[in-house]
Amino acid sequence: MNKTALCLLAFATLALAPLQSSAQAPAPAAGPPPPHLQWFVPPGPDPDSQFRLGPDSMPQEGVPKGEIRGPFVIPSNVFPGTQHTYWVYVPAQYNPSKPANLMVFQDGWGWKREDGDARAQNVMDNLIYRREIPVMIAVFINPGRRPDQVEPGPETGAGDGTTNRVEEYNHPDDKYARVITEELLPVLYKDYNISKNPEDHGIAGTSSGGIAAFGVAWERPNAFRKVYTVVGSFVSMKGGYVYPERVLASEKKPLRVFMADGRNDHRGKLGDRPYDPLLDWFYQNVRLEKALSQKGYDVNYSWSVGLHGQKFGGMILPDVLRWLWRDGPVSTDPNDMDHRGFRQPGVGE
Amino acid sequence: MKTTILSLMALATLALAAPAVAQTQNMTPEAFAAARAARPPEPLPPGPPPNSQYRLGPDSMPQPGVPKGEVRGPYIIPSQAYPGTQHTYWVYVPAQYDPSKAASLMIFQDGQGFLDPNGDLRTTNVLDNLIYRREIPVMIAVFINPGRTPQQPEPSPERGWGDGFTNRPEEYNSLNDKYARVITDELMPILYKDYNISKDPDDHGIGGSSSGAIAAFTVAWERPNVFHKVLSNVGSFVNLRGGHVWPDKVLAEDKRPLRVFLADGRNDQRGMRGGVYKQDHDWFYQNVRLMKALTQRGYDVNYTWSINLHGQKYGGMILPAMMRWLWRDSPVNPGPDDIAERGLREPAVKH
Q1: How much is the pTM?
Q2: Most Cβ neighbours (<10 Å): which of A38, A167, B214, B338?
Q3: Cβ separation of A340 and B66 shorter than 8 Å?
Q4: What does each C-alpha distance from B337 to A41, A100, A223, A268, B208 come to in angstroms?
């Protein structure tokens, strides 16, 4: 088996497995991978054993629930022959006469999964109601696939090896940014009243979806200014380790970036192969954070001990959304009793 | 009797703006609580109670498998800064504390409230969980109560925070360096003697709620070479003793190397008791104003505004997030071979 095949197999079987529930094996591979394809993990308790979702990630009594519409499918001109499936979260407070904010989640199925590690719709329900984040439309978009390829999901896996995911998400270029800004956004603008201000647009993703989200904002800072990456794959899958140097060499962009990662993310030690820093997720995440900090970006980050996956990044999603959207409009008029109460359905802002 | 009623009425009308009149600090906790309850209520928005949707999360609870730190004390130190008074404090020592390695330090005002195992903050659980997962560094935490004379009752979850029966309003709300002296000249030398604590101000944080928050901010402001991290929940940056001028001071004075988290809610005390709006008693307005001043001057500032009332329901819920942000840049070893650094942080081996 040559190195490329080995590497691809490793990603297909392992890199994406954490997006699955541990109870469900990804469809493309049954059983644990052979030892020479396993990432090294230190002895001791499972590094993911102490992450638990909190009350803001759960449905709460009395909190108005948004609606998830879809799936919708749009054909892609950027990646001819493929299409993208997406869902739209519309908060109960949305009012078509008032522009809403927008947040776009890559690997959409994983972020909205009701029994998943992030449960973004519950988080938005709770935080919008308490006015900790503004009223926002959220889009959960899956990676592109041909019509005959299987849709990524809890049972079918993240889509590496079975869809166009790796091609779209991992290249540090502007092709996937065009999918979002030229193919998705125009449809959203037609269907919903969404603010045109880039400060009101956020984009998020996990693993390859993390580098994809960062890449979209990097290439289109006039469309997206808020980024959340979880265990972002800023590694040598398709050359994604170049961002720290790009950040340092380029003019500073008006981006706000939250990075979550763990010390037991994939660490560049695959089986018995020599250590490869270009495949060390944590090392590359810390490197990118330092570059962003050095250039004066509005950056926040949190390093825990977790494995590759969304256990930690999902747990802290409420904190991350509060930070990304902290400067939403606020009224300091003490007589503004509407603004002081819970945000009611249909109020729009 | 008549005097008592008059005094209660004065409290009721003047709310917290009452000057440092001796008798307001020599009430019984019960009388003070009654006076507080007798104040005209602040108008609130219609609908469900603003605090009805805050719930502590798993990081604020004890978790199986997570090593528990030890709370030592109470200890009492006499005060030179405020002669005749003394301060009670407790020390949290994490299971991972190793006397051969310098620990970080975080000091919480109104220590009894931050320490209360059934309270809204449960700080020791948060520290246990986050230290174990390496999201914050190994830190000693001190929970210090406001000063009191030996005859005055100790603040507690049952008695209250100490306004009306201790030196709390004087110490916490005054804009001078006297309380900073309590912390840096009276408390810290003892801590340094008893524990191996880093001398780097980047490794020192200070926090509080309400008057304890303005106290924390003032200490860091007056001693920026001692404290660089500030946690403020429903901070009383209002005109109890002139604290409403903080935003102007921030804009006018030299920038300090401070990192500040401000949490507040739109239903904090809004200066509307008795039908007259007093902007310098509008907690939320003043917190937003302070945030804007800090932001304008380029401070490392984070903030979140919910809809909570005055109190710790919201700030307590997000304490884990505030701590992660304040301490985010503790050293990490990005090399893959440091196996100890990659594991959950286990208790230090006892020497």
Answers
A1: 0.92
A2: B214
A3: no
A4: 10, 47, 40, 10, 39
